[in-house]
Amino acid sequence: MTTRPGIAAIAALLDAEGYRERPIAVLDLDAFDANLEDLARRASGRPIRIASKSLRVRALLERALAHPATRGVLAYTLPEALWLVDHGARDVVVAYPTAEAGALRRLSARPDALRAITLMVDESAQADLILAATADLRLGRDRPPLRVALEVDVSYAPLPGVRVGAHRSPVRTPAQAAALAREIQDRPALQLVGMMAYEGQIAGVADAAATPYGAAVRAMKRLSRPDVARRRAAAVAAVREVAELEFVNGGGTGSLESTAAESAVTEVAAGSGLIGPGLFDGFRDFSPRPALHLGVSVVRRPAPGVATVLGGGWVASGPPGPDRLPTIAHPPGLRYAPQEAAGEVQTPVLGPAADRLRVGDTVWLRHAKAGEPAEHALTYLLVAGDPEPALVGAVPTYRGEGALFL
């Protein structure tokens, strides 16, 4: 992605306002809001559940949830969900199973949280763990049941031994889904209220490259979409024979259109698309605006054509590779030194533009994934106004509020 003039304008604004400390994280609210509107357009009326892991900033979660196209939070841990309920959340689905007995006990002791939070299960052992952790608290208590949702795997397996997608649920067939639903229903302390099926092979894999690999990814997605729709619909129908479902959740930022078009799905999930991280530069069908900018200081000029910034090594999770490195967004004309790349405490950058950098200048990066910078930054500085941005405030990240969930 080419450098947006907005990054240069934001850099000039911070210099004029005297914001000299680095590293710094700056969130462009205009870009965030434009991305939210685009997600709503792409969802075609399906409610969007906001994936909190892609934000990890309460104020941004609340801003997204104020939009009429959104519904509730898709959290990543139970302690996070409990914390969000403490701050007013009333509809939180925990996207991953939990084995945290202490958090389960806290949930069981709180009627408000029991009504607001839905846990995820994909095998009976998880249901047994939930009940074992909360059994003594529930004896003799008139409390709401523990709300649970069932996750079905919709990774793509076109041939024996060939599988594309995230390793998530062991439940793959309608019969398996119905059997687990019956096991949940046989436990009176649990209430099955929802289903989830995430097609990571469509939502999370870049497909724009004009290479044989890019062509293969596009072909995989084209073949996978109808397979996902068919298997998800069959699983939902089988489970609805066992229990009434409040919601069926699917999709992600990269697959909103196709997921929202499925009649079996009642809501879609998205979060990364609000931020527009570097990984989305490689998607063909949509292009979110970069909203989060990370500034690091030049501290060395070790040789002609080389400048070194302090830090910079916030490398994204996932399979190691160049696409997990931060994108060097501004100034243009910089690249990583191949022997160091994005380093833990120093990052050399190369190219003609490096000769124009001086000690104290700022190099601006975009993280490859949306939510992970919030685990490094305590605060996001907020700017708004295009083409001339202005400072409009600052908000703490989860970590800035003293909250750490993973």
Please supply descriptive tags for the structure shown above.
single chain, 406 residues, alpha/beta, Lyase, Ornithine Decarboxylase, Chain A, domain 1, TIM Barrel, 2 domains, 31% helix
Summarize the structure.
Helix content is 31%, strand content 24%. The protein is of the alpha/beta class and 406 residues long.
Account of the 3D structure:
α11 links the parallel β10 and β11. By secondary structure, the protein is of the alpha/beta class. The protein folds into two domains: 138 residues, Lyase, Ornithine Decarboxylase, Chain A, domain 1 (Beta Barrel); 215 residues, Alanine racemase (TIM Barrel, Alpha-Beta Barrel), CATH 3.20.20.10. The mean pLDDT is 94. The radius of gyration is 23 Å and the shape is globular. α5 crosses α7. The strands form three sheets. Strands 1, 12, 13, 14, 15, 16, 17, 18 and 19 form a nine-stranded mixed β-sheet that branches. The protein has an eight-stranded parallel β-barrel with strand order 2-3-4-5-6-9-10-11, surrounded by five helices. A two-stranded antiparallel sheet has the order 7-8. The chain starts with a helix and ends in a 10-residue tail after the last strand.
